[in-house]
Structures are given as C-alpha cells and as structure tokens.
TrEMBL record, chain A:
This is Transketolase family protein. PANTHER family: PYRUVATE DEHYDROGENASE E1 COMPONENT, TRANSKETOLASE-LIKE PYRIMIDINE-BINDING DOMAIN-CONTAINING PROTEIN. SMART domains: Transket_pyr (SM00861). InterPro entries: PDH/Transketolase, THDP-binding, Transketo_C/PFOR_II, Transketolase-like_Pyr-bd, Transketolase_C. Residues 5-171 form the Transketolase-like pyrimidine-binding domain. Gene3D superfamilies: 3.40.50.920, 3.40.50.970.
UniProtKB/TrEMBL annotation, chain B:
InterPro entries: THDP-binding, Transketolase_N. The keyword S-adenosyl-L-methionine does not apply. Keywords: Thiamine pyrophosphate. Residues 16-261 form the Transketolase N-terminal domain. Belongs to the transketolase family. The keyword 4Fe-4S does not apply. This is Transketolase. Transmembrane segments: none annotated. Its cofactor is thiamine diphosphate. Pfam families: Transketolase_N.
Length: 313, 276
C-alpha cells in the first residue's frame, strides 16, 4: 500500500480507452485540458475534445446539449469552479432535465491547498448532495476511479464524480467492481466504525491499525457513493459497533458525515463524531499541511475514535 | 422523417397564431397563473417555426434527426404548450390542466413530462448554452439538423448567454439560429431602462454572428428570415424579432404590468374578441 497515485491518471487512461471503443464519448472542458490530464484524449480525438474556454455555465449547458444529440459527454473541470460556478446548470440542465451528462470534478477538497480557499472544493458534496436525481461519487483510488468511469459511461443518466489529485494508494484489489450506493468493508471490527471517502480512507485504515494496538477493533468502511447512501451499511455499523466516526476532505456541514448522520439519527441513533474541515476557510498551506491542521491524519482519526468511545461509554 | 407542417402558407400560419393566442389566453384565465405578455409576444414566432420551418414530427418527437427547438424563455410555457398542442405533440385537452395540481404542464417546461420539450428551462440564460451543445452534436454527426433557440431580450442580461454566444461564434456554428424576442420589456421595466441591450445587433455581430432584424409579428418576414438560414456559411444566425409584449390584445400590449397578470372574466372576453 506504499505506492501512491494521482486518480486523474486513471480517469484519463480509462476515458481514452472508452472513447476508442465508443464514438459517442466526448470530453467538454473549460480550458482545463492540462488540469484534467486530457492531453492524450485531445491528441487521439481532437474533434471530440470540446474546449469552451473559461466558461463553466456554458460548459455544463453544452454538455446537456451534446447529450441531447446522443453523445456521452464527460464534462471536466476543477471541482470548485465546475460545481460552484455552474451549480444552477447542474441542477436544471443536468439533474432536473435528466440528461446523460457525466460531471467530473477534478482536484477537489484541498488539493490546491496553497492557492487558498477560492480554489478549495470543500462544499461540493453538500451543494450537489442536495440536488435530486444526481448520484455523487468519490472514488477512493485509481482502481475505483477506473471502475466508476466505466460504470458512468455504461449507465444512462447524470452523475457527479469527484476525481482526486492528492496521491492515494490502491485500497481495492484489481478486479474490484463498483456498484452505485454500496459501501465496502475494508476492515472488520465491532468496537467502533470509521466511515470515510476519498483521501481519508487510507488514513482511516492506518488509524484502525493504531487502534488495534490499543485493543480497539475498528470497522473501516469506504463509502464512495455519497448519494444515494448505503443506508443498510450505515445502520449495520451503528447497531453492531455503537459509535461512528466519519472522515472526509470536505466541510463537516452537509457532506458525507452529514449524510450518514441523517441516517443514524433517524434509523439507529448512536454517538458520532464528524471529521473534516470545521466550518472555516482554511489557512495557507499544502494539502498535507491542512490535513494535519484539521486532524485529518491517522493519529487524529484514532484520537477522535478513542474520545468518542470514552464519551459513549 | 415526415415533415408534417413545413408546407403551411403564411395565411395558414397567421390563422394558427390567432388560434394559439386565443387558447393561450383561455388557459391562463383557467389556471389563474401565467406569463401572458411574453406568451403573446412570441406566438407568431412559434407558429411560424412549428407550421412552416421546423423539421419535427409529433409522431416521433425523439427522432434523432429532428430539428431542435429550445425555448430559453421558459416562463412563456403557455405559448409553448399551446403550440405543441396545435402541432399535435400533446392533446389539446391537456392544456386544460395548465399548472393544475399534478399536471404535466408546469409553469416552466419539463422535457420528461412533455413530448417535444428539449430541455427544462425556467431559470434564465440556460437555453443558449444547451443549444450550442445540440449544434455541436449535429456538426460531430455531419447531420443537417438545425437548432433554433428562442431567448427573451431581458434574459440576455444573464452572463451565461454571452459565454454561449462567444463559443458559437468561435466555432462558426452555422446550424444554430438564435431568435431574440425583442419586445423591450422585462418583468419590472423596459430593458433599456434596466440594463440596456442596444445596440444588440452590433453585439451579436461583434461575436461573429450573422444578424438580421425583422418584424416579429410579420409572418412573411419571419418565414423569409428562417428560410434563409444560415445567413452566412460559417457563422451562427441571429434573428432579432422586433415584437410587442402582449401583441394582439389592446389593453395588454406593451404594458409592463402585464408580465404575469391574469385577465378577469370580462377582460378575457374582450381579449378573445380582439383575437378572433
């Protein structure tokens, strides 16, 4: 688990492969060929790489129009601008119109740490999770990124996929199959549950190792689908472990932790701790420095789990 | 695909437009809701498109090779639904449910409920970007199908339109026709008093479009313009249709307060008489 990868590489590789087999696939970008790593796609399919310039509202509308014409558009741009700038287009033209548009938010969370909060995408899951008819997916590693891109191309309808830039190890085995709305148990345990997505999953797994050394067996779930949520896995975790820590590279308001808390509060109330960015604009710093700042590390998660167990006891 | 209506004469189109206006007034009266000014403003444009220009077939509303008609001014759903009914896309009886509880006919159109609607509009500034997308798709397919998009004039204050206008010009989308319903009024006041659009033709031209201004209530002029598209090879087409908000009903014409007022029983009677 030591080798780390940029999930955008798996995204671009998979998209080129899919486009080779299916001419309906096109990419739509906002001057983001480089930041979406779509240089190879552009070279192979120059006509099918539609660069609308720095214009996110038009980009999403154009994606909806291409889908109306029978194409399968992967609309790709930096996550903060794709989601924030074009939020109403995502709602009206994609989700409500039910068009076959694949929204790909690149470099989300605090990947652009040093560039400051304008470039952080730590609200995207909350914004998009509130919209009906829009699956929201956070692939955890390159294996899952490839699986999700293939699933999206083969499945009619809108979707948002959050594609990470902060390097992560593969936590899934080759041959992994993605199913919408299904969590995977990466480590079993009955003392506490840690439910995470994206960059936080490897840290949750490390935290579980740390906790095991202290006699606490933590269950670790990877929850790639933020909407629709795997309610059954959440309820099982609540009932079988009695306490849940959620961890995400996102504000603690309205993201994965919020989604899980909605289920826990209504179906299986147990104590919880929500880890993420605590409702502030982050200071200047690299992604890893900001993770440390907000306790989004293996040690921070383990400490949070121990505090929660103590409070719950 | 069949081209059911493309043969209609100007006189036939005018009669269709009169019928559409009458029915439009009736359904707004029945619903107690609607955007009557903007509906009546666009009726001649829709009648001309649906009965003499668009290659669309109500029997096959999803035919991949159909022309696309995108109505960006979604609040003028009354004229869209009434025209779709007149053209056979939806039953006329459905119009009686306009905006009623549970009806398919929302105040703003929903493509998943109403055959013939291409995209869900209502928030302004959404139609042109989608139209650029359908036009690019036709180019990728080397298809002769065309996209006609109707935008309100006040709506052009939304910046997303100018992103799309710039992209269409850059790409030379000569299979795209934007029709501006230039009635000069927006919800609260005149466009020129609110956030001026003129010189609108020069603005489109500066973005690489071929532009003509026509009388938006003169069916012959509309027909001549629509049959001449693209005005220039390699350029998107803009038809600025000079219209009167509320056209056809004397007490509604060019009055800002009639953006979404509903006529009384007496006023309805008078309107229907003026439109007969």
């Amino acid at each position: 688990m030591s080798e780390r990868y940029d999930c955008r590489e798996a995204f671009q590789r998979t998209l080129v492969d899919l486009a080779t087999r299916d001419e309906r696939i096109v990419a739509v970008v906002n001057d983001s060929v480089g930041s979406s790593k779509l240089g190879a796609f552009e070279q192979a399919f120059p006509d099918r790489l539609i660069n609308v310039g720095i214009a996110e509202q038009n980009m999403v509308g154009v994606g909806a129009g291409l889908a109306n014409g029978g194409r399968i558009p992967f609309v790709s741009g930096a996550a903060p601008f794709l989601t924030g700038r074009a939020l109403e287009q995502i709602k009206a033209d994609v989700a409500y119109s039910n068009t076959n548009v694949k929204l790909c938010g690149q470099s989300p969370g605090m990947a652009y740490g040093e560039l400051g909060p304008t470039h952080h995408s730590i609200e995207d899951l909350a914004w998009l999770r509130a919209i009906a008819n829009l699956p929201v997916i956070v692939p955890v590693d390159p294996i899952e990124t490839e699986a999700v891109i293939r699933w999206a191309a083969a499945t009619e309808g809108p979707v948002f996929i959050r594609i990470g830039r902060v390097p992560v190890p593969n936590v899934n085995e080759p041959g992994y199959t993605f199913a919408l709305g299904r969590a995977t148990t990466l480590r079993d345990g009955a003392d506490i549950a840690i439910i995470a997505c994206g960059t936080m999953v490897e840290r949750a797994l490390e935290a579980a190792t740390f906790l095991a050394a202290r006699g606490v067996e933590a269950r670790v779930l990877n929850m790639p689908t933020v909407r629709p949520l795997d309610r059954e896995a959440v309820v099982r975790a609540a009932v079988e472990t009695g306490a849940i820590v959620t961890v995400e590279e996102h504000t603690i308001h309205g993201g994965l932790g919020g989604a899980i808390a909605e289920v826990v509060a209504t179906e299986a109330p147990v104590p919880m701790r929500l880890m993420g960015v605590p409702g502030v604009f982050a200071p200047t710093g690299s992604a890893l420095a900001l993770f440390r700042r907000f306790g989004l590390t293996a040690a921070g998660i383990a400490e949070s789990a121990l505090l929660l167990r103590r409070a719950a006891a | 695909m069949s081209q059911l209506h493309v043969q209609a004469t100007a006189e036939e189109v005018r009669e269709k437009a009169r019928a559409i206006r009458r029915r439009n007034v009736e359904i707004i009266r029945a619903a107690g809701l609607g955007h009557i000014g903007g509906d009546l403003s666009a009726a001649d444009i829709l009648a001309t498109l649906y009965f003499a220009v668009l290659n669309v077939d109500p029997e096959h509303p999803d035919d991949p090779e159909r022309d696309r008609y995108i109505q960006s001014k979604g609040h003028a759903s009354g004229v869209l639904y009434t025209t779709l009914a007149a053209a056979g896309f939806i039953p006329d009886s459905l119009l009686d449910t306009y905006m009623a509880d549970g009806s398919a006919l929302n105040g703003h159109p929903d493509r998943n409920k109403v055959p013939g609607v291409e995209t869900n509009t209502g928030p302004l500034g959404h139609g042109l970007p989608v139209a650029v997308g359908t036009a690019i798709a036709a180019k990728l397919d080397h298809s002769p199908r065309r996209t006609f998009v109707l935008v309100g004039d006040g709506e052009l204050q939304e910046g997303s339109n100018w992103e799309a206008i710039m992209a269409a010009g850059h790409r030379g989308l000569d299979n795209l026709v934007a029709i501006v319903d230039r009635n000069g009024l927006q919800q609260g006041a005149r466009t020129e008093a609110t956030n001026a659009l003129d010189p609108l033709d020069a603005k489109f031209a500066a973005f690489g479009w071929a532009v003509r201004t026509v009388d938006g209530h003169d069916v012959e002029a509309l027909l001549a313009a629509f049959r001449a598209v693209p005005f220039e090879r390699g350029r998107p087409t803009c038809v600025i249709a000079k219209t009167t908000k509320g056209q056809g009903v004397s007490f509604i014409e060019d009055r800002v307060e009639w953006h979404h007022k509903v006529p009384s029983a007496e006023q309805t009677e008078q309107a229907l008489e003026e439109l007969s």
